[in-house]
Design goal:
This protein is an all-alpha fold and 362 residues long. It has helices at residues 9-13, 16-25, 28-39, 43-72, 74-98, 102-127, 135-156, 167-172, 174-201, 212-244, 248-260, 262-273, 277-302, 315-331, 339-359.
């Protein structure tokens, strides 16, 4: 079934005054950039301004994705949102690698996966309608995440003892990274062809106020601005963390991961709230899969131009992702969404965040 998105139906889902506030609040992004570079108010103010600015940007990405999905179908729409939404994470990760913050990179990437599987999907199911979902596509994404965890064991297990940053572990990470990228290209090509064929065979999408070109242009600009804002927030997050007394691992696995996924977090929930739960689940699970089989290996290989990055994940990180995959698969096994399933996933994420706080740094 194709969930109708875009067009006139959108205006009826959110109150008009809320939409006007969201459109007006997009001005916060350029204001935040101007304040940061011209006024230089300090890290605490930068953190607050950047965090607030990401909210309307996340909504805009969700808005543009729904318009694009009206032309492409929900499967390709979810892929587009995941692609654009993960771009800031790639920038953040490479900046952290360049600064030698390897634990921050690994923790934020694994935290991003768990966040998409539990938090983003959980809130989407919590605020969306009870409906059928694309079980085949969802389990394809979950299978990619599970495969990535298995391959991550190759460099991670030897790193359980000794220096996890040693050069031999970084070299050992190359083969899994290449395999994951090949797997990503093959599976993505197959899924996009299937989604395109299904979309063509369905009823034509209703007229939408945005063309596909406009939708993609808005996605690109919004993603670029999101990356700039996220960079400001991440640079100021250390001071914030020091003030509240949490570990660097917690900051990376929870705070940085949530910030880097702001587009998916807000966009998926908005889409689910509008009744398009199929697209919302595609956004959450496609994003988790892309982090595993595209973002992580891409960061690992591109890092060699800066500093070699070892994919030496901690046992806690691997267990957390594997547990998130198992729980999500169990809840989606019947191919349906529901409020109680969303509540279970959100509760599980709260447990993960508490555990990350207790575990602390390596």
């Amino acid at each position: 079934m194709f969930y109708r998105v875009g067009g006139g139906g959108q205006a009826d889902t959110l109150p008009r005054v809320v939409r006007r506030i969201l459109w007006a609040s997009l001005a916060l992004a350029p204001a935040t950039l101007a304040i940061h570079y011209l006024v230089q108010p300090g890290d605490t103010a930068d953190f607050i301004f950047a965090a607030i600015s990401l909210v309307p940007l996340a909504w805009l990405i969700g808005e543009a994705t729904e318009h694009a999905a009206a032309h492409t179908g929900s499967g390709i729409g979810g892929f587009l949102n995941a692609t654009f939404g993960n771009a800031p994470e790639l920038v953040i990760a490479l900046l952290a690698v360049n600064s030698g913050k390897f634990d921050v990179v690994r923790a934020s990437l694994m935290g991003s996966i768990v966040g998409n599987l539990l938090l983003v999907l959980g809130f989407s199911l919590l605020f969306g309608p009870d409906a059928t979902i694309d079980r085949r596509s969802n389990f394809s994404s979950l299978g990619l995440v599970a495969a990535a965890v298995a391959l991550a064991l190759i460099p991670s297990i030897p790193a359980f003892q000794g220096d996890p940053e040693r050069h031999s572990i970084a070299r050992l990470s190359i083969a899994p990274a290449v395999i994951l990228l090949v797997l990503y290209v093959a599976v993505t090509w197959r899924n996009l062809r299937r989604h395109r064929q299904e979309h063509v065979s369905e009823d034509p999408a209703p007229d939408t106020s945005w063309s596909l070109g406009v939708s993609l242009a808005v996605l690109g600009v919004a993603t670029l601005v999101t990356a700039l804002i996220a960079e400001i927030l991440v640079k100021s997050i250390d001071t914030f963390a020091a003030n509240v007394g949490v570990s660097d691992f917690f900051v990376a696995a929870v705070i940085v991961a949530v910030v880097g996924n702001a587009a998916e977090h807000g966009g998926a929930v908005v889409v689910a709230h509008r009744g398009n739960i199929r697209l919302a689940t595609e956004i959450a699970l496609a994003s988790a899969a892309q982090v595993c089989v595209f973002l992580i290996p891409a960061v690992a290989l591109l890092a060699w131009a800066l500093q070699p990055l070892a994919l030496s994940f901690r046992p806690f990180e691997l267990i957390a992702v594997a547990g998130a995959v198992a729980l999500t698969a169990a809840l989606l096994a019947q191919g349906r969404s529901s409020t109680w399933r969303g509540a279970v996933l959100v509760a599980a994420y709260v447990g993960f965040a508490a555990a990350a706080f207790a575990v602390g740094d390596r």
